[in-house]
Amino acid sequence: MNINDDFAARAAVHADALDWVPSPMPGVERKMLDRVGGEVARATTIVRYAPGSHFSPHIHSGGEEFIVLDGVFQDEHGNYPAGSYVRNPPTSRHTPGSEPGCTIFVKLWQFDPRDRTHVLLNLFEKQPVPVEGQAGVNATEIFRDARETVRAEYWHPGADITRANEDGMEILCLKGGFEEGGETFAPLSWLRLPAGTPLNAQSSDIGAFLWIKEGHLRFTDREIAAVKAAS
Hints:
Layout: E1 2-3, E2 11-14, E3 21-22, E4 28-37, E5 41-49, E6 53-54, E7 58-59, E8 64-75, E9 78-81, E10 84-88, E11 93-94, E12 97-98, E13 102-108, E14 119-122, E15 129-130, E16 137-144, E17 149-155, E18 160-163, E19 169-180, E20 183-185, E21 189-193, E22 199-214, H1 220-230
Antiparallel strand pairs: 1-4, 2-21, 3-4, 4-5, 5-13, 6-12, 7-11, 8-9, 8-10, 8-13, 10-14, 15-16, 16-17, 17-22, 18-22, 19-20, 19-21, 19-22
């Protein structure tokens, strides 16, 4: 299955406009943002767990990164309320589910295979600080290595945001909204800009709270090859 698989092109998905698609597990539904592969896939997805639903135990051969958007995500390691950001690196294992139900944004098979760094924090509990040289932007760095940088950013109301975007980026709108490329992005809207495509955006009159990842799109071919080898 290929969805938004041209990583040299701009991609935008407004998830609220998509229908939920059942997964192989009862009570678990998906909205696919990008995907290369079948059930083993390099994928970016919004997943909804009905109350009491769960996935079978599994190992993250290619790593897993997710944000809890609402409800409470659960596994044998703990409970993760809305705002939780989790990085489960390659070789990690869990049995995901949710007794009360939840919705998550999740990325699979997008890690360096040597990465063993686990991250757990709550985006809503961090206090973004002003970013030098970027008027109207406050940010919290979530994760950084030689491969990628992940941040939570708050764009002030009406702020004009311009970046060269040399290495490519993804943006998920969590609260508020912004305009880019003639489109309006609201909560659960997702934007992917390839390397070299500048970001020119304006935040809404209530501002925008965003998850932003940069640098990782340089490794897409390697990730897709790893998925094919594992399928």
